[in-house]
Amino acid sequence: MTSRLVDGPRGRRFLYELLARAEQRENGEYNENSLVSAMWDLSIRLTRDDGSHAVATFEWTGEEAGASKRKGNTGRLIGRIRKKWMARSRGPWHRSGSFRLGLKPGWAAHAPAAGYTSGQSFNPVPHWKEGVPPVRDLVTSAKVAVLIREASKRLGEEKIPMSDLVQALAESVISARYWQEPDMIDIILSDPVVADALRDSEEMLELLGLDFEMLAGGGVELAATWLIDEIDSQCVVKPSEQVLDAWLKSTVARTESATRERPDDSTANWSGHWWSTPPRGLLVSNGETVDGDPAAFSCTEDGPISTRAEIRELTVPEKRVLVIENAEDWAELSKRFPLDITAEVRHDWFRVTGLDVTWIIPNWRDVAREWDGVKLSVRGYLTSATRAIDVGDNASMIAGWGPGETFWLNGEGIFVGESEIWEQSNVGDLLWERVSNRHGENLEDDETALGGNEGPEDQLFN
Predict the structure, then answer these.
(1) Which of 182, 210, 238 is the last residue of a domain?
(2) Secondary element (H or E) of residue 324
(3) What is the pTM of this model?
(4) 161, 196, 256, 380: most buried, per Cβ within 10 A?
């Protein structure tokens, strides 16, 4: 049984972001008749008017405003939002967060866009819905589906730059949520009418022969360590058995505590450890993107935690590696090695899926008796992450795991090479620079050391 990208939230988001980038490349940052504009209008209209959300809109400023009016536009335009984030109120406190914007000079935000903190209030949605089109122009999911099909046809008429594919995957990763409701873009893309339209895009990529694994899982295995406050890391890896034993003990203790102390009501305002990966204390590696950069920079769930990273190449001997290619693989692993964590994840995963069920994950200590490593393929991520996976009478979810990422349950014999230091060249962007090589030599003046090549002639197709 072949899993489809449109079956998974991350796959649908990847296809949408790919269409959006192609559209922006053709029409510029903003076009009032575009798919991106329609999606944004529908997102605002569908957002609840109960004061629980805040939405940002944008307008031209300065000289740009005059030019906009001369072109007959309304003056209220929406910038290219790389990550659309809506703050959600939970009782007396709000989740904090920020927008990642890609606005042209002369654009200004018309919302208290960034930095909600505990106890801080904000205006409810009705005050920020003035940019919604009049009733006769209301965007529907059917219109979004039409625009998707039109964009899919154009996608097949041109070569797809590798940068579009890498960026689309990165946007899908960074927009994933495992601890709260999906964002409005993901919700719209889950509409059966819209999801069916996205099949055209998926079929086009299949006809072109896209190798998904080259987006993040190709080349050598690289271990990334995020450097914080200029503290150098020694990439210390504890014995795998010790890490797994400690993880199991801690997981069982947290679940028992949650059973005693948290309400059974899945809608209650509680949160806990929501990820289902093996423990991060193990050796973890990613591959390279198609341009040779470490995939960890663009494919880390919730984004990198630092703008500096230490990268080490792994030399891996013959190992038993299980590759998760689809939801069925994950379900089988969870069924064979079940660990019930319902009380710990009940509230978070209910917000994600709307399901009040018994939640299980693989018991990684037991999995390690048969497998030395477990890898989530890029296609496995796109088809299966951020969704409820049926496991008989129970359910499970792949949460917190990046595409192409491998957890080494048995790191014995794996050689960890010399380090390279990389730095993010522009905060909020995907471009990173290698600033020192494996011999510790500074590469700041070496133009060939730059990562993030973006040649439109570079392709990822067979």
Answers:
(1) 210
(2) strand 321-324
(3) 0.79
(4) 380
